[in-house]
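Technical note accompanying the year-one report. For the benefit of new consortium partners, we illustrate the data format agreed upon in the data management plan: each record pairs a sequence with a structure-token string. No post-processing was applied to the example shown here.
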Amino acid sequence: MKLSIVLSTQPAQFQAATFKGDLDTNLTRIASLGYDGVELAIRDPRLVNADELERLVRERSLGVPAIGTGQAWGEEGLSFTDPDPAIRQQAIERIQSHFPLAARFGALVIIGLVRGIVRPGMDPQQAMDWLVAALQECCSAARPLGVRLALEPINRYETTLINNAAQGLELVERVRAGNFGLLLDTFHMNIEEPGIETSIRRCGPRIFHFHVADSNRWHPGAGHLDFQSILSTLQETGYKGWVSGEFLPRPDAETAARQGIHFLRGLK
């Protein structure tokens, strides 16, 4: 099981980015705790020195399985489903700007809250049509670079658009791109799925990435989720990708990361 953990390359409002900023110190800390890789949350690639970032990551022998993009929504309000076509276009261009860096690291690009929401008074079908069109455009641009995209079903309290695995699979069918799949997250699944293991089996080969956080969004082992069963089921689907920790830095980032990896490595 290849384990990574989320690190935001800049300070961010998003609480579940376990580590934030101070790349040199935090990458050293992540490597010393035994993680195999680091999932990078990047709001805007133009704010990142790609050469320096690659040097810091490679020096610590860390992989980069994925690049998170949700801060474009959280910090700037960019989304694929905004009523303003100019904002929708900015969101598409922002996601596409991640592709060269993703290709450089062999990482996939996560589509989280940048997909947007169905705003009050908005036609849900119109929002879905915008989302599908944006994803098709992005997948087409990513394909020549060998980059994959993974959309994360997110619980109903954070978005009104694609909350569960079944809706995610329906979207995959509509987009019809071989480089588009799903990111499943145990925190969101605990809220939305009738059975976490059943949904994992149903998604099967369309699972491109996997996030772990316990029922309370603390590190695995701090809540009531049965990670032995969840991760065994994930393995049974033939999943060969990464398991990435995206959980609250409670009681602090280093303690959470240490306890999380200790718990996960202890599973049989």
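Partners are asked to follow this layout when depositing records. The two ends are 11 Å apart (CA to CA).
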